[in-house]
Specification:
It contains 15 helices and 13 strands. By secondary structure, the chain is of the alpha/beta class. The chain is globular and about 60 Å long. The chain binds pyridoxal-5'-phosphate.
């Protein structure tokens, strides 16, 4: 029999996966072109051509025994050195290979960080709306999720509430910028304020409170808006990065964690995170993909395609009378539902073959997430469905 913990998880299986299955069902009934599935965050821009070229080149050039074999749990040293140098060049930081641990995407990066720092009952602050898997990752290590709501006008954390929720049990604060699902980016000013509060609270409680910055969308920003590098604002910061979105390699499971030497007891933390990588069962990040990353470190996907999608979908949504903050990054619109019950709104949208994710699953009811990592054509085709949906609620 499965464990009680898993029983609960099976019962509450992710709503996003459910939507995925629902989408497939609707497509079988109505045909691929008549279903508008905006539920999944799977990249729609192809990986850069250099990814394929690098795979071929590496396979031809490298010794297969060492290429495909086990390695240090933190990954290939030369790859980590290249990543450190690339970050240093862009953000004037001072990392070397030892500050970088290669991971199986951001999901495993978050898990190994949380495994390394949490004792049972330790609290982790999340800023709602947030990626719902955080609940599972924190509970994996018997941590407790404490949620602080972002302000509705700009989706920045409510700093007063944030400060009030830091207690002697707070071990970490988990932020995500650019944000899934809102697309907002934390400015220098907000990071400075978060840092000031956390520094004060560390002193008050006399232990480290870590800032974990989850950054799979770092490269997905529009109009060259700056995404500040969080380690520059707060010493006890982990950066969790991934190539799932930045190089459209979500299925390849590759990313890294940055642990700066300025972090308290950084050597011990680096060792713990490296061991956590092994013992959660990842062992090390995929070897071929690490080598590919080293070749493709400065490559970019076609960001313009996401920007075009964003602009079109935003125009449709706003013209239909819905309310939405225009996202600065990532590939989601976060739209206020005209009725309080976001799940009910999603049910009604389904009548028009429109699939959204209710924001209750991001701990922020009253909104839906509409993912625009889809084809531009699908967005165009969905216009009439959005208009029909809006007529149920809004007098145009
Ligand atoms: C905010 C956020 N964090 C982490 C992840 C996990 O990313 P990865 O594919 O790198 O594990 C996702 C994936 O969608 C995400 O949206």
């Amino acid at each position: 029999m499965i464990s009680n913990k898993m029983k609960k998880l099976v019962q509450n299986n992710s709503i996003i996966r459910e939507m995925f299955e629902e989408g497939k069902k609707l497509k079988d009934i109505y045909g691929e072109n008549n279903v508008y599935d905006f539920s999944l965050g799977n990249p729609s821009a192809p990986p850069p051509q250099k990814v394929k070229e690098s795979i071929v080149k590496i396979m031809e050039k490298e010794d297969p025994i060492s290429l495909h074999g086990y390695m240090s749990n933190s990954g290939f040293k030369d790859v980590r050195e290249k990543i450190a140098n690339s970050i240093n060049k862009k953000f004037s930081t001072n990392f070397n290979f030892s500050n970088i641990i290669m991971t199986v995407g951001a999901a495993s990066g978050l898990n190994i960080v949380l495994k390394s720092i949490l004792n049972p009952e330790d609290e982790v602050i999340t800023i709602a709306p947030y990626f719902s898997e955080y609940n599972n990752y924190i509970q994996n290590y018997d941590g407790i999720v404490v949620t602080v709501k972002a302000n509705e006008q700009d989706f920045m954390p409510n700093l007063k509430e944030f400060e009030q929720n830091i207690t002697s049990k707070t071990k970490a604060v988990l932020i995500n910028t650019p944000n899934n699902p809102t697309g907002v980016i934390y400015s220098k000013e907000i990071l400075e304020k978060i840092s000031d509060i956390m520094e004060r609270k560390q002193k008050e409680y006399n232990h480290e409170i870590y800032l974990i910055s989850d950054e799979p969308y770092r490269e997905l920003v529009y109009n060259n808006i700056e995404v500040p590098y969080v380690t520059k604002y707060y010493k006890n910061t982990f950066i969790v990065y991934s190539y799932s979105k930045s190089l459209s390699l979500a299925g390849e499971r590759i990313g890294y964690v940055v642990i700066p030497k300025e972090m308290e007891d950084s050597q011990e933390v680096i060792e713990a995170v490296t061991i956590a990588n092994r013992i959660i069962g990842s062992v090390n990040a995929p070897s071929l993909m690490q080598k590919v990353i080293a070749e493709c470190i400065e490559e970019k996907i076609d960001l313009e395609s996401y920007k075009k999608n964003r602009d079109l979908l935003y125009e449709i949504v706003i013209n239909c009378g819905f309310k939405c903050v225009k996202p600065q990054g990532a590939f989601y619109l976060f739209v206020k539902t005209p009725i309080d019950d976001d799940k009910e709104f999603c049910k009604i949208a389904k009548k028009y073959n429109l699939l959204f994710v209710p924001a209750s699953s991001f701990s922020y009811p009253g909104y839906v997430r509409i993912a625009y990592c889809v084809s531009y054509d699908m967005i165009e085709r969905s216009r009439s469905a959005f208009i029909a949906l809006s007529k149920e609620f809004i007098n145009n």
